[in-house]
Amino acid sequence: MRTAVMTVVAALAGAALVSGPFAWAEPEPYLVGRGISDVTGPAAENGMMGYSKFDQKTTGIAQRLRSRAYVVVDRANGKRVAYVNADLAMIFRAVQEGVLAKLQAKYGNTYTRENLLLSATHTHSGPGGQSHNLAYNLSILGMQPQALAAVVDGITESVVEAHEDLKPGSISLGVGELTNASVNRSRVAFDRNPDKAAFPQGIDPQMTVLKFKQSGDDVGAISWFATHNTSVTNANTLISPDNKGYAAYQWEHDDKGVRYLDNTAGFVAAFPNTNAGDMSPNLNLKPGSGPTENEWENTRIIGERQNRKAQEIYNGATAPVSGGVDYRQTFVDMSAVQVDGRFTSDGKSGTTCSGVVGASTIAGSVEDGPAIPGFSEGMQSPWKKLFEPLQMEVPQWLRDCQFPKASLSATPSAPRRPQ
């Protein structure tokens, strides 16, 4: 996922970073805009997305969820990119299609699938039901139109604000390390990786910060860092953007004086995730534990650590970004990815295969939040009866391909047998 971060940086800058004593960059070579809007959604009786608990339904709001948008335009040729980071568990195609439909109704083909990038902070404490895919709606008990509408409308509004906010501006880049906001929750598995030496602490400590200015004034930042947004546990039923949302709120509201109900533009600070896979904020390797035993205090501390490090990097981000604005779009068939023999159990090269819901998926994470009782990570004895009513039998070829994973059910899209 570091590649994804740098892809955004390259998209904003045509991959040209100019620094050093002989650096030259045209003053304010871009138009820069930023926007922010609410995407909170139903605060009562809506299934929550992230932990896959059927009984976890919203009962109120601890902190509102927001969408943060940035638009950058090349002043030389008019090419642009829009980047959005929202306080959500995931971004689904249903959301993308809804946002694009609204933006294109207002701006024509100015924003497309190619130049609009939507991302999520991966909070596990927000309303769910924004997908058209059964797999993501099971624990929510179905798609929730009200939740989907809140997200689509909020993201669209944030992009519109950024679009209308465009002014001559500049971008610079900074990189640093944060080592006390994550821990590897699967260290035994990690230690079997052939390239583990690249990360001696078992974590990826890199934080990458983009700094946005308009006419010399600081107006926004995007701070990429890998840690799960799971400081708040699965026993919680209050809507929360978790540690990354707290980091953004602290920088914007407490440090920059932003008041979200004002119509005036303020500083916009986004904290997207990078390769968060097994990076947990629960430093004691159990839900809601570490640095303290209070989940809300942990949310504040881990969020503040990200904010303080991001501002330190931001203040030292002196490498100007220059070059043309461009974008690339790539589709990857995740059921047919070549896997090098270094990463397989038998040392032979192979490929991935179509997806299944496995026992470990249903189990959740011991360190961040178990899901359905009776399932544990790594178990290989499927509980077939639980899935028999869904009539989603897993074909034998797919079971063989997924072995030794316990394959409980095929994903709703029809499995594609390898040719």
Structure summarized in a few sentences:
With 419 residues, the chain is an alpha+beta fold.
Q: Top keywords for this entry?
A:
26% helix, alpha+beta, 419 residues, two-stranded antiparallel sheet
Q: Could you explain the architecture of this structure?
A:
The structure is a single chain. Helices cover 26% and strands 22% of the residues. The chain has 10 helices and 22 strands. Strands 1, 2, 5, 6, 7, 9, 11, 12, 14 and 16 form a 10-stranded mixed sheet that branches. Strands 3-8 form a two-stranded antiparallel ribbon. Helix 2 (93-107) crosses helix 4 and helix 6 (242-256) packs across helix 7 (295-315). The longest helix has 21 residues, at 295-315. It is globular, with a radius of gyration of 22 Å.
